[in-house]
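hey so i finally got around to running the thing on that chain from the lab meeting. sorry it took forever, my laptop kept dying and i had to restart like 3 times. anyway pasting the input first so we r on the same page abt which one it is
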Amino acid sequence: MNGKILSVTVLLVSLLSVTCGCQSARQQVIFAGTVKAGEHFQHALDGRFTFTMEPSEYGWLVAVYEIGRNEDLARLTPPFHFVPNPTQIEGWHFRNEDDTGPNDGSVNAPQEEREFIFSPEVGLSIDGPEQHYGVTPEQVKCVRLFGRGVLHIQHLVLSPENIGNRAKILEMNFRCTVSWPGSVKL
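ok and heres what got predicted. didnt touch it at all, straight out
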């Protein structure tokens, strides 16, 4: 009987690991890129996921997609309110409030290191169409346990300073590291 309980427990732990992406073996991809204003960037992570940078008015939006789906799997990267999200990389984050010089702390925004999280469960079992409540901290933890990435901005060219306006990124060099669970074998 103890053998059966142990087998069920191991299976349950394995299934929980699959659900939350808690496997110990992780795949990792490191790549670099250069983008100019208005350009779209895409990098295949494996046969399942694609990292993208989609152009926006002031820079780019970082997203991760599962091949065959239009759901941004990184859209639950915190914080959700009050300060710019790390997946939004915009020129004005790197200038002061008046757009007359470098960010002196007057603009509360992430800087050169941008961490993001992702999971294929986003839009399905996590924050999917059937969910009738906001995302829970436990769900965000599950997303974080599955996929993580860090984008390091290595060089930026911003639009000229223009008092009272928002700076745009004209060109950006970056390096990115992304990891997610390896293949699951039960």
